[in-house]
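Thread title: Can someone regenerate the structure for this chain?

I was given the following input by a collaborator and told the matching structure tokens would be attached. They weren't. Posting the sequence so someone can regenerate them.
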Amino acid sequence: MAIEEPAYRVVKEYGNFELRRYAAYLIAATEVEGEFDAAGNLGFRVLFDYISGNNARAESIAMTAPVEQRAKGEKIAMTAPVSQSRVAGSADTHVVSFVMPKDYTLETIPQPRDPRVRIQQVPGRLVAVRRYSGRWSVDNYRENEANLLEAVDKAGLRTVGVPVYARYNSPFRPWFLRRNEVMIEVRTAEVVEFSK
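Best answer:
Regenerated them for you:
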């Protein structure tokens, strides 16, 4: 059975990244402190507890993909998959998020019991995405992040916010078959609308 992902369409393909137009979606997000890997694991546990029934209706919520992680410090309009972010300082702060199933709205999603979990709406947006496989390591992520940012700059696109690390597979999938992505919102001179 396929795991649900946020709706998008590919606007343009470049040599080593895609330009995607995402529709709006909901996320459940939490802020955690710690190194890249530890923060991702901690955030995952907090959010998994929420979708496993630690919410006002004691309702299980289906797991979707990706799990996103981004550095904290940017003001965002909520988005989903699980995400993590980093902020400079003595301890890194990350935002980890799960994308919520599309059948939910802000009005119908079960409210979290854990005050560390926030439900947010991520608006539709244009995103540059580099896909890669391999281990969930900070070195693998940083290498692909650098490649994406360089390619986006060469393509003449302007980035908005901070990059997002997106993981699509369970930890049980062999590392060489994993789908990982680096994503960053961009602006172009053209306006490209999402259509269903």
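The chain has two domains: 8-21+124-187, 24-122.
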